[in-house]
Amino acid sequence: MNEFIQQLHSHRSIRKFSDKEISQSDLELILSAAASASSSGNMQSFSVVVTRDRAMKERMYQAHFEQSMLMDAPIFLTFCADFYRMRRWLTLSEAANNFDNYMSFMIASIDAILASQNAALAAESLGMGLCYMGTTLASAGEIGEILELPENVVPVVGFALGHPDEAPDLRKRLPLESLIHYEKYHKYSDEEVLEIYREREVEGMKRYRDNPRLHQMIKDVGAKNLAQVYTQAKYTEESHLKYSEDLIAYLKRQNFF
């Protein structure tokens, strides 16, 4: 492995940050890396909102389900699917507006996600750590109001960014052969599926049982295995249906339908 690939393999989420600030020059290096990401048609249909102000972070903290790393990190970056800029340019140029639809939202979302990963890799190369927060999409409407996003702009993904104050163990990933398919998709047998998740089951349940708060959560929902933890505690059908309805409603308000 070269140094860069080693960095990729050593990625871990950081949830505790030191008091060390991020310099403006380092931040601009990270953001310029984001701007260099692949983009559909080179439209760069994304924007990044940098949150440093504590009062703003406190408002974001509520929208992000009160996750402590948002307040602990010196910076939070929100990557948005953004066709506001492009659509204004089209209007001013007397061109047709073809980007008021769901496909356009998906294109812009992919642009934003690619930009976020570039930024994450740049930050880690500078010795920083980060934690992606899936609550960005779950609370898109609320976050959009806090950040005063205009129509055609939707927050898609975000992460807390700072200098690590912890060194967590690497989390095991699924076996490579369970993720990669050559030429055609290999449809797994039931036995293969169970084998794919065997180590994840052991590691995951140990992690939950070793943490008193998570252990209590397992007991409260009566989960007997990791799959039940995912579906009865972390990602319930009720919550995902609500988030889906909220997101669709917000996309309509933001003129993506």
Gap between N and C termini, in Å? 45 Å
Kindly provide the name of the CATH class of the largest domain: Alpha Beta
Helices, by number, come to 13
Give the topology string: H per helix, E per strand: HHEHHEHHEHHEHHHHH
Q: Any idea what the CATH architecture of the largest domain is?
A: 3-Layer(aba) Sandwich
**CATH topology call of the largest domain:** NADH Oxidase
Q: Strand sequence of the main sheet, in spatial order? A: 1-2-4-3
What count of structural domains? Answer: 2
Q: Your description of this structure?
A:
The protein is of the alpha+beta class and 257 residues long. The chain has 2 domains: 3-168, NADH Oxidase (3-Layer(aba) Sandwich); 176-239, no CATH class. Helix content is 52%, strand content 11%. A 4-stranded antiparallel beta sheet has the order 1-2-4-3, with helices on both faces. Helix 2 (24-35) crosses helix 6 (102-125). The radius of gyration is 20 Å and the shape is globular.
Q: What's the short version?
A:
This protein is of the alpha+beta class and 257 residues long. 52% of the residues lie in helices and 11% in strands. Strands 1-2-4-3 form a four-stranded antiparallel beta sheet, with helices on both faces.
Write the layout of secondary structure elements.
Elements: H1 3-9, H2 24-35, E1 46-51, H3 54-63, H4 68-72, E2 75-82, H5 84-92, H6 102-125, E3 129-133, H7 135-138, H8 140-146, E4 153-162, H9 190-196, H10 198-210, H11 212-221, H12 226-234, H13 237-253
Antiparallel strand pairs: 1-2, 2-4, 3-4
Helix pairs in contact: 2-6, 10-11
